[in-house]
Amino acid sequence: xxxxxxxxxxxxxxxxxxxxxxxxxxxxxxxxxxxxxxxxxxxxxxxxxxxxxxxxxxxxxxxxxxxxxxxxxxxxxxxxxxxxxxxxxxxxxxxxxxxxxxxxxxxxxxxxxxxxxxxxxxxxxxxxxxxxxxxxxxxxxxxxxxxxxxxxxxxxxxxxxxxxxxxxxxxxxxxxxxxxxxxxxxxxxxxxxxxxxxxxxxxxxxxxxxxx
Amino acid sequence: xxxxxxxxxxxxxxxxxxxxxxxxxxxxxxxxxxxxxxxxxxxxxxxxxxxxxxxxxxxxxxxxxxxxxxxxxxxxxxxxxxxxxxxxxxxxxxxxxxxxxxxxxxxxxxxxxxxxxxxxxxxxxxxxxxxxxxxxxxxxxxxxxxxxxxxxxxxxxxxxxxxxxxxxxxxxxxxxxxxxxxxxxxxxxxxxxxxxxxxxxxxxxxxxxxxx
Lengths: 212, 212
Prior knowledge:
- Chains A, B: InterPro entries: Glutathione-S-Trfase_C-like, Glutathione-S-Trfase_C_sf, Glutathione_S-Trfase, Glutathione_S-Trfase_N, GST_C, Thioredoxin-like_sf.
- The structure is a homodimer.
- The first copy, chain A, has helices at 22-33, 53-58, 78-86, 97-127, 135-156, 169-178, 192-202; strands spanning 13-17, 38-42, 66-70, 73-76.
- By secondary structure, chain A is α+β, with helices and mostly antiparallel strands.
- Chain A has two domains: 6-86, 3-Layer(aba) Sandwich (Glutaredoxin); 97-202, Glutathione S-transferase Yfyf (Class Pi), Chain A, domain 2 (Up-down Bundle).
- In chain A, strands 2-1-3-4 form a four-stranded mixed beta sheet, covered by helices on one side.
- In chain A, β3 and β4 form a beta hairpin.
- In chain A, α1 packs parallel to α3 (78-86), α4 (97-127) packs antiparallel against α5 (135-156) and α4 (97-127) runs parallel beside α6.
- The longest helix of chain A has 31 residues, at 97-127.
- The interface between A and B is large, with 36 and 36 residues.
């Protein structure tokens, strides 16, 4: 069993989690692949459960995922959680500062250029069912989202994975919203390299799907 | 003189830079505070200079800043560049995985929740002068931007800096767009703790302003 710190002996990690969230799924996927046991606590975003004082104490930004790694020690921001968990494992290149920076580059690219533009249309179309009300914003996001997918497609035409030709947390982060992009109305048929890479991610050891 | 790698002996770092960009300013500020010499190459965003093939070879995402650290080795994404440069210095907590994760948390918060919502209104109002055309988007960004500023204000009511009560790259990243938020129409008078923190950042050794 993978063991990181002494606190692992006294409590399971607790993941404050929303099942449809891609940002939460990233953390579930990595925890599972690292064989770290954790408890899932469902936070109902639609009912405002991230905006109540009890939750804001865990993450003042009012967002999931939040990972409790020791009693009352909470990590937030999926990219930071992935880096924390993967440190020292095969999922984050070791002892190579440039490769670690490449991973961080893709994690920031994902959070700035990709995921907001994929997740928000997906939320308003497939979760909140408010597509018409937010049509002008959805158009704006989709233009930016296609630009980000173009950058990924171009990279994956040359490489099997995003960094160092091996599966890292960069792939986990980028995969999360990309593989469900069609739920936000994205036409993924024009991205064969992305689709082939999604299949490679799915074939990784101990993979779990977003609905598991 | 701070020297990181052998390549420092053969060439200065080259920063592909846009003077009004807060993301570029972060890198200029840190390089200056670390006393790392660098050459600035002005990239004219408004004239589409980040979208030409020569630039896209450096950063396929078509964005500044880009830092060339060795001939033909380019780093992109300001958060990743800050982490790369600050590794092993006082600006990124050493040998403490939890504190490093806290810094990364704020860097991701900045890129996801703060900077797009501050920088885009600033760009359309103060740079491109297209405020009317993008009014509905500016409203959307500003709502989210105020939420992010609220989170920062709340933190700074209790702490002098964002992590470990000392000045780190988390402060550099968060300061960059925040201190010019009024150029995007933000009313900063309701954020006294943020204003006091801005003054503390300005008083750091070797500080430079965004227009320097």
